[in-house]
Design brief:
With 390 residues, the chain is mainly β. It is built from 2 helices and 28 strands.
Length: 390
């Protein structure tokens, strides 16, 4: 694995420790490095969490990442934390970024036989596995140079988009390539060139458009739309670490890292794409997730070094701008992901790590109706990056 392919993963782990799980964000990554060099306080259970004594139940499953059985693999489990099953290819040593297919029958992810923390020669690839672990298909070729970002499914589940990086050669500058392939075979449909390093990729829920968050060498971040047909690129916003689609695909939500505002960008043809503020955070919004019912936005914010990374997850009501604090405390809290009905939210909470490797973390679940939160995993290593089945 090249340094360029490996660097996004290291930055991801850095932002995990700062309540966000998406590649990019050099400023955030450098903040983590300073904490590792200093004496950051030990983590504790987030203060705002009130753990339920009842078990929350449901038919949906959660795909997540765990290192409990050797290596770092993809698992699925019931919504109450039971019946965990390893589904990723057992030949892979490190897997991350699970993404469910729209029909709930497959999970895509990025995996490698190498060790990203040792910077060895293992090449990352995009894989698709059946949810019972019975079938594994590599859908990226060995020459793609895949980087660790979450694969994006097309709305019909027929295609996957993922990212690779091309170093400068001759007169050609370094750039990203978005590969669009058949999800069942890896057959390439299109390769789209993007001029900068991509940190997040998300397919529109209704159209052949991609939401692209990228960064430049000066740690500036950009949010774009890109057509999968024409490859036309439209800049939407500057200064957001992440973005997310509305359920109807007509709007984008972003968190402004400078003003600390949460903003909605309407994408109708007659609009000028001016962001509309709906709430303001007390710290920089990093990771952001719009609920499938359209009613709420979950926001993970960065902490402060002198406060021992007091990270927070807040829930914003889109219509009113009302803000509720779901979890806050030392350590890090991040990777908020909604269930398909918008009534439950998983997130990852963990400890700061000063050594190479996956930080200690567990999955938690919040129920909107009851306001109760429960811990789903309780291992000694990393269990997180949870995503709900459709």
């Amino acid at each position: 694995m090249t340094n360029r392919q490996n660097r996004p993963l290291m930055m991801i782990l850095g932002m995990l420790t700062l309540s966000v799980l998406v590649t990019g964000g050099l400023a955030v990554y450098l903040t983590l490095v300073r904490a590792q060099e200093g004496n950051a306080p030990a983590a504790e259970q987030p203060a705002a969490i009130v753990q339920s004594t009842d078990t929350l139940t449901g038919e949906q499953r959660i795909a997540f990442v765990s290192d409990q059985e050797g290596g770092v693999a993809i698992y699925t489990m019931e919504a109450d934390g039971s019946n965990a099953q390893r589904i990723s290819d057992p030949a892979l040593n490190f897997c991350a970024f699970p993404a469910w297919s729209p029909d709930g029958q497959r999970v895509a992810y990025v995996g490698t036989t190498g060790d990203p923390f040792a910077d060895d020669e293992g090449e990352a690839a995009v894989w698709v596995s059946a949810t019972d672990g019975s079938e594994h298909v590599q859908v990226s070729d060995a020459e793609s140079g895949v980087i660790f970002t979450q694969p994006a499914w097309s709305p019909d589940g027929a295609r996957l988009a993922f990212v690779s990086w091309e170093e400068a050669e001759g007169d050609e500058e370094s750039h990203s390539i978005i590969h669009i392939v058949r999800a069942d075979s890896g057959e390439v449909e299109r390769n789209l060139t993007f001029p900068s390093e991509i940190h997040q990729l998300a397919w529109s829920p209704t159209k052949d458009e991609l939401l692209v968050v990228s960064g430049d060498p000066d740690a500036r971040t950009y949010v774009h739309l890109m057509s999968t047909d024409s490859a036309e690129i439209t800049e939407l916003f500057r200064g957001a670490m992440m973005a997310d689609w509305s359920p109807d695909g007509e709007s984008i939500v972003v968190g402004d890292y400078t003003s600390q505002d949460v903003l909605v960008i309407e994408l109708e043809d007659d609009q000028d794409l001016t962001p509309r503020p709906i709430a303001q955070m007390t710290m920089q919004p990093l990771e952001i997730a719009w609920s499938p019912d359209g009613a709420r936005v979950a926001v993970a914010t960065a902490g402060h070094y002198r406060q021992g990374y007091a990270t927070i997850i807040k829930i914003v009501t889109v219509e009113t701008g009302e803000i509720a604090t779901l979890a806050e405390g030392h350590g890090w809290v991040g990777w908020p992901r909604w269930s398909s009905d918008g009534q439950r939210l998983t997130f990852t909470w963990g400890h700061l790590s000063r050594s190479p490797g996956m930080p200690r973390a567990d999955l938690w679940l919040y129920d909107v109706a009851s306001g109760q939160t429960e811990q789903l995993t309780a291992g000694e290593g990393f269990e997180g990056m949870g995503v709900w089945s459709p």
